[in-house]
Amino acid sequence: MLDETRPNRTRPMDEFQPIPVFRSGRFAAQKRNIWWRNPWVILVLALVLVYFFGPLRTNLLILGTDDSPERGALGRTDTIILTTVVPLKPYVGLLSIPRDLWLPVPGVGEQRINTAYFFAEAQQPGSGSEAAMRTIRDNFGVPVRYYALIHMNGLVEVIDALGGVDLTLESPSGGLGAGTHHLDGTQALAFARERYSSDDFSRMRRGQLLLQAALKQAILPVSWPRLPLVLAALSGTLETNLPAWQLPRLSFALLRAAVIGIDSQSISREMVAPFQTSGGAQVLAPNWEAIKPVVERMFNLY
Question: What is the pTM of this model?
């Protein structure tokens, strides 16, 4: 028998909100991964991948001047390295060019290749690097429009900011014996410039070894805290027309290539013919039949 004096404790079912029940697994995964279906996210990821890994080739002319307190700020480019970078592979090719290579210099005539920068800079400060690139384009056929000019005296501060570099030599070179050497900035510059026991071809090889040693040192975790000091040192010795948007992708490709390996080539003794000019200068005539196949392979000029 019902007790009509007690309130009715039951409530209609339509007053309650349904509680959704999800099965674990499929629905939870869909909720977690729904951001993958956002077209804007996909577009941004695609652009990032293309930026860092796209097959776009970048050619860069690395120049090292022989300026010094004794010679003054206006020097010749005794270091000439034509560089190409393909981030997708990654591929980094370095082609060292002898400073005494005798060829047509635009606006000057037949001259050593290392004077292209000097003559243009003497006539109009700031135009030397462009003149050097034009000389490369006209003679080698490589479409290069970016340069990195290093005042070699500033190399001392850059290497010191890195904490020095480790250099391994298979045979004596640059005044150093075979084996592994730790060089500070002053020792690295002396190694690159040593002229008493070797010739230009050996110096080109030493320049590439030093550049690769610096790249390998930069990617070591122990060097990362020093990178702000390295960038500060570079700002005082490096001139370049590389746009800022190129720097991250090229830096990433260089660091990867430093681990995988860099294609280091030089215009060798077999590719040139020494001769003496009418003015008595000892120079090198290029053998284009030997040089062009190397250039075409490295810079994809087929």
Answer: 0.79
**Which residues, in sequence order, are CB contacts of 37 under 8 Å at separation 6+?**
none
Within 13 Å of residue 71, how many CA atoms lie on the same side as its CB? 12
Which string of DSSP letters, residue by residue, matches 111-171?
EETTHHHHHHHHHSTT-HHHHHHHHHHHHH-----EEEEEEGGGHHHHHHHHT-EEEEESS
The amino acid sitting at 71 is R
The reported pLDDT for the residue numbered 10 is 55
**pLDDT at 83 (0 to 100):** 94
Residue with tokens 């570079």: 234
Taking the C-alpha atoms of residue 95 and residue 82, their distance in angstroms, rounded to an integer, is 5
Q: Which CATH architecture has domain 53-299?
A: 3-Layer(aba) Sandwich (3.40)
Q: Phi/psi at 258 (nearest 5 deg)?
A: -65, -30
The CA-based diameter of the chain, rounded to the nearest angstrom, is 133
Q: What's the pLDDT at 258?
A: 73
Contact 254, 85 (CB under 8 A): yes
**Grouped pLDDT means (10 residues each) for the chain, 302 residues:** 52 56 52 60 62 74 79 78 88 93 94 94 92 96 94 87 91 88 92 77 88 86 89 89 85 78 92 91 94 94 70
> How far is the CA of 65 from the CAs of 138, 142, 216, in angstroms?
21, 22, 23
Domain locations along the chain = 53-299
d(CA 192, CA 165): 13
